[in-house]
Amino acid sequence: MHLYLHIPFCRRACHYCDFHFSTNLTLKTTVVESICREIDLQANYLKNKQLETIYFGGGTPSLLNMNELYDIFETIKKHYTFAHDIEITMEANPDDITRDRLAILQRFGFNRLSIGIQSFNDNHLKYLNRIHNSQNAEDCVHLAQEMGFENLSIDLIYGIHPLLTLPKKEQNNSEFTQGIHQIWQRDLEKAISLNVPHISSYCLTIEPKTVFGKWLQINKIPPIDEEFASEQFDILVSTLADAGYDQYEISNFCRDNRYSRHNTSYWKRHEYLGVGPSAHSFNGESRQFNISNNPEYIKALLLGQVPADYEILTPEEKVNDYIMTGLRTKWGCDLNEIEKLVGTKWLKTNEAVLQKNLSQNFLHLDNQLLKITQKGKLFADKISSDLFLV
Ligand code: SF4
To answer: Vertex 68, ends 281 and 289: CA angle to 5°?
Structure first.
């Protein structure tokens, strides 16, 4: 079983970020108290009481102090046992990674760090409004390794066009684009040289409620250039493949089978409990979505209630979830599993779409296992949604 904790605080708002967080840290300890209350209230959500993974995400969970971590772990231990090989991950920002903090994390049993580096280029980091610089990014990886954190992941963003305010004709200048591609290539080479076993890399997206979303509305920046982004995706995939990384999910790469066991559990549709504002949970039959508002979350928990919406999944929705997540992974989707859920309905409904994708070499079917091809990965979301049941 798997536990996710959402810590909804950050020191600074990154211009692209659409996650739930607050930069006002005054409620941090109170939210932690509420999270502990939620862990108590949800003690029976997971049938199996042995945890295989715990993931502290956010926001910036590396902002938690020792007392807050202590309270959280003591509450978790009241209800669950830990598997002998449990994976305990902390998402951390480079500016929070100090020798003392790493020692504290080790004392609590953290054995994996997911570091939000995003770029090794100072101009790009400034453009994204990240709080750290490229030297901090590199130093924190070395420090974590020196302190014995071998299971490290770093996040990198591609599709960053930092000079988007240039006149259109200069943006389209192919030399300029090549220069940006070189920066991306250098970011990847830096990541490889740091010898981290796991890299997550997502394309920059512009979400309406973010600073970039507002800039887009007033034409301060143009929309993401799909062709540019897909060129960067190609550079990502080929560079990491050459360096021996396995693309086990469209945006996730690892060496030596260092998969994120926690995230893989989502993609394989295992049950998990998510606690904290905006966290989601899944118990095989239904999904739960916690409220994305810190004061409301605290208020409800004080009254002994979990402020969440619930959705019971129909067999069709379970199939759609499976297609959407399974096709993004190297393990693909087992058509026998789909048949168990909805009989032959999926195959009958989607026969033509399936054949079209197979003939265009976007999908590959072997022994009832449906997988996306390298060519199809660029269009994974569209391919999946075309195969949904309505
Ligand atoms: S990207 Fe991470 S650090 Fe930046 S605002 Fe979002 S959650 Fe906070």
So the answer is: 15
**Is residue 286 included in any domain, yes or no?**
no
The tally of domains found in the chain comes to 2
Compute the distance from residue 20 Cα to the ligand 1 centre, in Å. 9
Residues 327 and 267: their CA atoms lie apart, in Å, by: 9
224 and 356 part of one domain: no
Rounded average pLDDT over 260-288: 95
Q: Say if pTM beats, i.e. exceeds, 0.90.
A: yes
14 lines ligand 1 (CB under 6 A): yes
Q: Which domain holds residue 103?
A: 2-266
Q: 295-324 pLDDT, tens per residue?
A: 999 999 999 999 999 999 999 999 999 999
Does the CA dihedral 265-57-65-273 come out positive or negative? Answer: negative
Distance between Cα 343 and ligand 1 center (Å): 42
Asked if the structure places residue 149 within a domain, the reply is yes
Q: Is 10 in the pocket of ligand 1 (CB under 6 A)?
A: yes
Domain assignment of residue 91, yes or no: yes
- Summarize the confidence of residues 176-193 as an average pLDDT: 88
Side-chain half-sphere of 143: how many Cα atoms within 13 Å?
A: 17
* C-beta 59 within 6 A of ligand 1: yes
**181: confidence class by pLDDT, cuts 50, 70, 90:** confident
